[in-house]
Amino acid sequence: MNLNPESESESESESKSMDRRILFVINSKSGSSDNKSVEDTLERIMIESGVCYKIIHLSGDDAREEILKTISNFKPDTVVAGGGDGTVNFVASLIAGMDIMLGILPLGSANGMAYELGITGSIEDALRLIVKGEAAPLDIVRLNDDHISLHLADLGINARIIKEFEKEGKRGFSAYLKHFLRELVKPQQSFKCTITTGHRVISHHAYMTLIANANKYRTGANINPSGELDDGFFEVIMIRPYSRWIWRSFIGAFTGTFHKKPHVEVFKCTEAIITAHPAQELQVDGENLGKVNKVEATIEKHALRVIKG
Questions:
Q1: What is the model's pTM?
Q2: Are 280 and 288 in contact (CB under 8 A)?
């Protein structure tokens, strides 16, 4: 009989690790990480932990089929998205509704979702979190049936900035900031935005409308202080034309008072239809999806289990 509680705990932990099956989906184009160094660290920690693992590198148009086939054959308990927010979104869209944990290995230039989940340390720290395997429920927002959002989606000024950011091809916050400043010096054009949620219909001109499952952009700007990732709701946030709206928004976002500003309206929803005239650029979790006139959003409560920091 083992009378040492600490030794028993270590033995149970070791047994748990050896039972783990983890599939890593790595986007080698994400961010500026040294891919060889990342994979060396990954392999070392998986071997040390006694974890059974496989690695798939994202490439080509058949990635979706390859990943789903590997999931079917390998039967992982965890699928890890190694990349930025776009990679996390892609992997999450494949395993939503499955009895599989989502892990995040932040290799992108922004890593907004990882930041939101408290995965802010080194690559090694993130891998050890994944091995530990403690997951929490996560809602997703289904958009127009074709896409999901885990983090933040928006129409208007930020989506236009991301479009230019992607066209240039440079990564990192400094590149985003350059396009942000360029957008701000242009004459700001609002669009007519109508939000239909439940029995309510709200119509105003807006500079930007957000669909928020989370709280913060990677910059730390908290645009949705009341949002929770697992409460069965998302927030629609409309930023209306207002005197010195940029300065007021900036102060509010970094003082936790964004939602209280007179030019900001927040609607807690389980479903919503948002229309924009003229059509506006739409970005979802850091990826520009082009111009749209309408977005239909529906919450899917606890559609995923995600490993958090």
A1: 0.87
A2: no
Residues 88 and 157 in one domain: no
Check whether residue 64 and residue 198 sit in a common domain: no
Last residue of a domain, one of 110, 133, 156: 133
The count of C-alpha atoms lying within 13 angstroms of the C-alpha of 223, restricted to the half-sphere facing its C-beta, is: 31
Q: Which domain holds residue 205?
A: 147-301
Band of pLDDT at residue 248, cut at 50, 70 and 90 = confident
Closest CA to 77 of 123, 29, 130: 130
* Beta carbons of 105 and 123 less than 8 angstroms apart: yes
Out of 133, 167, 201, a domain closes at 133
Question: What pLDDT, on the 0 to 100 scale, is given for residue 108?
Answer: 87
Provide the 3-class DSSP secondary structure of residue 88: helix
Let me know the angle formed at the C-alpha of 264 by 261 and 267, rounded to the nearest 5 degrees.
Answer: 125
Rg (alpha carbons) of the chain, rounded to whole number: 21
Residue 251 sits in the same domain as residue 159 = yes
Q: Write the pLDDT tens digit of every residue in 287-301.
A: 999 999 999 999 999
Band the pLDDT of 256: cuts 50, 70, 90.
confident
pLDDT, tens only, 228-247 = 999 999 999 999 988 777 77
Are residue 24 and residue 72 in the same domain, yes or no?
A: yes
User: Which CATH number covers residue 65?
Assistant: 3.40.50.10330
- Taking the CA atoms of residue 213, residue 24, residue 288 and residue 168 in that order, the dihedral angle to the nearest 10 degrees is 130
Q: What is the pLDDT of residues 66-103, one digit of tens each?
A: 999 999 999 999 999 999 999 999 999 999 999 999 99
84 backbone dihedrals φ, ψ, rounded to 5°:
-95, -165
User: Does residue 10 lie within any of the structural domains?
Assistant: yes
Number of domains the chain contains: 2
Q: Are residues 195 and 72 in the same domain?
A: no
Query: 250 with 263: CB under 8 angstroms?
Result: no
